Amino acid sequence: MTTRVGDELPQLSVRVTRGDLVRYAGASLDFNPIHYSDRVASEVGLPGVIAHGMLTMGIAGRVVTEWVGDPGRVLSYATRFTRPVVVPDDEDGALVECSGTVTAVEDDVATVSITAKFEGRPVLGKATATVRLT
Amino acid sequence: MGLDQSLIGRSYPPSEVYEVSRAKITEFADAVGDTSPLSRDAGAARAAGYPDLIAPPTFLTIVNLGAIDELVSDPDLGLDYDRMVHGDQSFVHERPVHAGDRLEVTTHVDSIFARAGNDFLTLRAEIHTDSGELVCTGRAQLVVRGEQ
Fold first, then answer.
1. What range(s) does the FAS1-like dehydratase domain occupy (chain B) (predicted)?
2. Does A29 touch chain B (CB under 8 A)?
3. Under the phi-then-psi rule, with left for phi > 0, alpha for psi from -120 to 50, and beta for the rest, what region is A58?
4. What ipTM was assigned to the predicted interfaces of this complex?
5. Would you call B61 exposed, middle or buried from its count of C-beta atoms within 10 A (0-12, 13-18, 19+)?
6. Mean pLDDT across chain A, nearest whole number?
7. Digit-coded pLDDT (tens) for B62-106
8. Cα distance between residue B142 and residue B120, in whole Å
9. Are A27 and B90 a contacting pair at CB < 8 A?
10. Which residue of chain B comes nearest to A73, CA vs CA?
11. Mean pLDDT within B16-38
12. Beta-carbon separation of A61 and B58 below 8 A
């Protein structure tokens, strides 16, 4: 398989529930209460409990790791956090839709531009990963 | 009140060692929904040429958070944690993190500036083994919202 500029990576849609936020809090050791407490979230002016930006980054990174089949081939990964993912306290949670496009290929390294959307709007800005192809 | 720009360039002594366990790698992979066998099955990881289970690309957020906490607890900076948000994050890996790694983080303040009433601070977290091998450089922009 030859990777070319413009190649689209397989898309990924992930539902994030409050339970997922609790699990990620424990795994990442990020216990900021805005990620589980409606009371604290509202006190700091948020529209509700929001997902950890790093969780959204981690989920969106799967577009690349699942494409190459090896998380160890990701050389770099960067993003801005531009908009919060608000996670309601129900069974459906929030739907995050992720995709990726190859923007450069040099030697054995591809650069992938990643998008992650919630309610149709981007939540990550300039999300980019570089990945070794073999 | 703006952050003190004279603190640009400040760095902190290396953190305590964080020892990466197989269990934590798999727990973190589960939390982001990463199903790679290389983060779950040591035999599969070795067959792929790694010494042990390897971590997902954002795993070092665990260590990076320690670097952020280091800054938050520095009274000279006076960061207001309640008004702070994570503006951006990057990781540049020298190699994948694997189970058994003994990691330390050295934290540096790379920039401080104010814009539109908000303070922006960029920290650089150099994550290295306890024998000095650089594994990853993390950069985070922290935004402290101005009091309205």
1. 6-137
2. yes
3. alpha
4. 0.97
5. buried
6. 96
7. 999 999 998 989 999 988 887 888 999 999 999 999 999 999 999
8. 6
9. no
10. B96
11. 98
12. yes
- A27 → closest Cβ in B31, B38, B95: B31
Domain boundaries, chain A: 7-16+52-132
DSSP chain B: ----GGGTT-B------EEPPHHHHHHHHHHHT---GGGT-HHHHHHTT-SS-B--TTTTHHHHHHHHHHHHT-TTT---GGGEEEEEEEEEESS--BTT-EEEEEEEEEEEEEETTEEEEEEEEEEEETTS-EEEEEEEEEEEPPP-
Which two three-digit tokens encode residue A113?
Answer: 């531009």
Contacts 24+ apart (CB under 8 A), B34-39: B34/A58, B34/A62, B34/A65, B34/A71, B36/A65, B36/A66, B36/A69, B36/A70, B36/A71, B38/A70, B38/A71, B38/A72, B39/A71
Q: Answer yes or no: are the C-beta atoms of B140 and B89 closer than 8 Å.
A: yes
Tell me the per-residue pLDDT of B106-140, one tens digit each, with 9 for 90 and over.
Answer: 999 999 999 998 999 999 999 999 999 999 999 99
- Chain B: nearest CA to A62, how far in angstroms? 7
Whether pLDDT at B148 is above 90:
no
CATH superfamily of A7-16+52-132: Hotdog Thioesterase (3.10.129.10)
B8: Cβ contacts below 8 Å, ≥ 6 apart = B109, B110, B111, B112
Is some CB atom of chain B closer than 8 A to the CB atom of A56? no
Which domains occur in chain B, in start order? 5-20+55-145 (3.10.129.10)
Note whether B137 and B92 are within 8 A (CB).
yes
Identity of residue A100: G
